[in-house]
Amino acid sequence: MKRWLQRLMIASVAVLTLGVITPDHEIWTSLQDKHEPNETGARAEGTAYSLELRSEADDVLALGSRAEDQQLVDHARLLSYEKFGQRIGPVIQHEFDTEIFPRIESVIQTTVHNAADRRLAITEQPSGDYAEKIFHVHDQTANQDLIRFHVRTEKRPIDGYFYNFHYHTAEDGFVAHHSVGDIYWSKNTPPKWLS
User: Fold this and answer.
1) What is the pLDDT of residue 119?
2) Which domain holds residue 82?
3) How far is CA 164 from CA 5, 33, 38, 63, 160, in A?
4) How many domains does the chain have?
5) Distance between CA atoms of 31 and 24, rounded to whole angstroms?
6) Which region, left, alpha or beta, applies to residue 41 given φ > 0 means left and ψ of -120 to 50 means alpha?
7) Residue 8 shares a structural domain with residue 59
8) Contacts of 34 (CB under 8 A, 6+ apart)
9) Which residues of 12-41 are buried (b: 16+ CB within 10 A; e: fewer)?
10) Splitting the chain (195 residues) into consecutive groups of 10 residues, what average pLDDT does each group show?
11) What integer pLDDT is reported at residue 54 of this predicted model?
12) pTM of the model
């Protein structure tokens, strides 16, 4: 009954404002019972997603490890979309899914493969405004970052605005930019992240 009422309220706000004002999803999350599953994908603040890597000597462990690796990759995709928000995400989603994310996934898989017997975790909160951070993959055992995935907004004089996806590694002290790719926005100033 509560979901039905929520959907009715969302539709009412959209109809009454002619779609100019969209309901803030945080409102619905706060109305939701703590025991109900969260449909919007929002999560509690301060939670951490972690992954413990095991040796792949045993076939059963190897299957479990591949499933956990995929969970880490899926969580990275969700954090990327969270950073894009509702204004940027729909515009760049196709190009991100086809060009950028497969490269990010490859880097994550390489890191997971090289980090055997470590407990890896992924950060939970991408940064907003115009900050670069999407997510970091870090070793919980050593309490240090291994890879930092970022996106930078670049203004090119004649072409307009581009999103430059890149990562930094602990191997070089997070100094070098390892480019993943660029996505064109437009000549207009892009909105802030998480908007």
Assistant:
1) 81
2) 51-184
3) 42, 40, 32, 35, 13
4) 2
5) 12
6) left
7) no
8) none
9) eeeeeeeeeeeeeeeebeeebeeeeeeeee
10) 65 64 52 48 44 39 57 88 92 94 92 79 82 89 90 92 94 91 93 88
11) 42
12) 0.66
